[in-house]
Write a structure and sequence with these properties.
It contains six helices and 17 strands. With 330 residues, the chain is an alpha+beta fold. It has three domains: 78 residues, lambda repressor-like DNA-binding domains (434 Repressor (Amino-terminal Domain)); 77 residues, Sandwich (Immunoglobulin-like); 86 residues, Immunoglobulin-like (Sandwich). The chain has a five-stranded mixed β-sheet with strand order 2-8-7-4-5. A five-stranded antiparallel β-sheet has the order 11-10-13-16-17. Strands 12-9-14-15 form a four-stranded antiparallel β-sheet, with no helix packed on it. The longest helix has 27 residues. The chain is elongated.
Length: 330
């Protein structure tokens, strides 16, 4: 019997790749939306390739960057494929319009007279005046409105995230640390930002249609000492003593780039999201802790009483690496 070898051809669309990646990681659209702040309907449009229902490209590119960071994959490859597919869709639309019946142009006799010349020159003069006026308005237009209500500059938080909230000029483009953020019809915005321990600088920019910008930077100090570590025994009472001796602790952080991480302790999902560099997460379990990372060689693990180690030598995604009180499970 002759056997044939099947060769995989990577011809998936952007939407198919996103859907496959989501299903492989057992994530729902709602979970991705909660972590990336991208509305579920926009994630659906991207997976379906329904680009005509998406907002302006600057927002779509921001969606894809946040999605790539969350998934721990290359944002550039997603952006290039989106731009390529968007261009193909536009070309197809242009060809459909070009296939319409072209009616012959009928020319009538036309005689240039002094009156026509004067009218033409007058129209050009008026048009030049409007163009000059537009440029003057563009040069002197006021800066867009931007007010950051919370947090206040120089504030401190006991935690690993802070919510940035405020109001900007309606229809202005808004960016927080260079990431595009949607504002509602009233110009209000609210977004959670991950923090490193210590001093963090958060810059908010509002840009109007004339490319005029208003910029506001707030400094926030993050204190991790009062943050409780996620634990598989979260429901245990303080009276337990001997049972807690069987638990073991793990510290986890990434060293260079934001990376998507998933952690399960004793079968319970304790963390699923993006870690910023040097943002240390702590976990506790009785039997085992399972770690999945978008960048194995950039993820660092330290078990209680043991030396720090790298999760994997692989530079890409590594899944379900299990640790027990005795160390890495073989």
């Amino acid at each position: 019997m002759v056997r044939f070898t099947t060769k995989k051809i990577d011809s998936m669309t952007l939407g198919e790749q996103m859907k496959k990646l989501r299903e492989e990681r057992r994530l729902s659209l709602s979970e991705i939306s909660k972590s990336t702040r991208v509305q579920v309907k926009y994630l659906e449009y991207l997976e379906e390739g329904n680009y005509s229902k998406l907002p302006a490209q600057v927002y779509v590119k921001g969606f894809l960057r946040n999605y790539a960071i969350f998934m721990g994959i290359s944002g550039q490859s997603l952006l290039k494929q989106y731009e390529r597919e968007q261009k193909i869709a536009q070309n197809i639309k242009g060809e459909d319009a070009g296939n319409k019946e072209i009616k012959p142009i009928k020319f009538s006799s036309f005689v240039v007279t002094p009156k026509i010349i004067i009218i033409t020159l007058s129209v050009l003069f008026v048009f030049s005046g409007f163009l000059y006026l537009y440029r003057q308005v563009n040069n002197f237009v006021s800066m867009p409105r931007l007010v950051v209500m919370t947090p206040s500059d120089g504030s401190s938080v006991d935690g690993r995230t802070v919510r940035i909230a405020g109001v900007a000029e309606k229809n202005a483009q808004l960016f927080i640390n260079d990431q595009p953020i949607l504002v509602n019809e009233k110009g209000e915005f609210s977004e959670d930002v991950g923090l490193r321990e210590g001093l963090n600088a958060i810059t908010v920019v509002a840009r109007n249609k004339f490319d005029k910008e208003s910029r506001q930077t707030v400094s926030v100090n993050a204190n991790y000492q009062n943050v409780e570590s996620p634990s598989s025994g979260a429901g245990a009472s303080e009276g337990e003593d001997a049972g807690n001796k069987e638990e073991f602790d793990m510290e986890l952080y990434v060293s260079s780039n934001p990376t998507w991480i998933s952690v399960e302790a004793d079968g319970n999902l304790m963390y699923s999201g993006v870690l910023l560099p040097d943002s240390v997460q702590k976990f506790t379990a009785k039997e085992k802790i399972s770690v999945t990372s978008g960048k194995g060689n950039d993820t660092h693990i330290k078990l209680e009483g043991k030396e720090e180690e790298i999760l994997s030598s692989e530079s890409g995604v590594v899944r379900d690496i299990v640790f027990t009180p005795d160390g890495r499970a073989l």
